[in-house]
Amino acid sequence: MSKAAIYLLLLTSILGAQNTLAHGSVVDDEDICQLEIGFLKAHFKIYLPRTHDREEFCEDLPETTESLFVMEYEHDKLSTMPIDFRIIRDVTGLKSFVREEHVATIEDIEAATVFYNLPAIESDVFAVIHQFTEPGWYVGIVTASSENEHYTAVFPFEVGFTGIGYWVYFMVAIFLLLIFFWYERRRNLT
Fold it and tell me: Which pTM value belongs to this model?
């Protein structure tokens, strides 16, 4: 394999790595955001109806606005269980690395809570609306419970996240390729 092919393969791997950075219990599975609440699963979407019409988000939200959180159950069992939903500020400082065990160590979760929806049984679809007023890192906590079972999903997300976009990766790729070709040309001239 030529050096150019190796560099191109390496560059493609680096550019593709951005899609593998998943948060918490939300998994982007072939354009479907899936929330894993223990072994139970639900399609999870966030809408920003005032600013982004019908565009769906899995986690990170580009701005502070009214946000509609929607879970469509994949398991019938979820439609028979009380489900509560809480959003807290990330007081752990761990950002996208917050997990359930980190949330369990928060001494005063009520003080960190910015939104709480009491446990309720919703058939087929669970939906809540929350108005974000400040950008920053938050943690969503979904709990499904019954008499003998208790399942939790924790997913960190950023509000006001615009990302750096793919153009930066594209520019870095062009720069690296130019350096490679300059190096190869210079080496062949000597």
Answer: 0.72
Angle between helices 165-189 and 3-16 in degrees, nearest 10: 170
The rounded average pLDDT for each run of 10 residues, N- to C-terminus, in the chain (190 residues) is 53 49 52 86 94 90 95 93 97 95 96 97 93 96 92 95 68 83 80
* Pairing verdict, β 56-57 and 40-47: antiparallel
CA 157 to chain centre: 6
Please report, for the chain, the start and end positions of each structural domain, with discontinuous segments joined by +: 23-162
User: Residue 64 class from Cβ within 10 Å (0-12 exposed, 13-18 middle, 19+ buried)?
Assistant: middle
**Complete DSSP assignment for 1-54:** --HHHHHHHHHHHHHHGGGG---TTEEEETTEEEEEETTEEEEEEEE-TTTSTT
Rounded Cα distance between 47 and 54, Å, is 7
Q: What tokens does 146 get?
A: 């019954």
Fold category of 23-162 in CATH: Immunoglobulin-like (2.60.40)
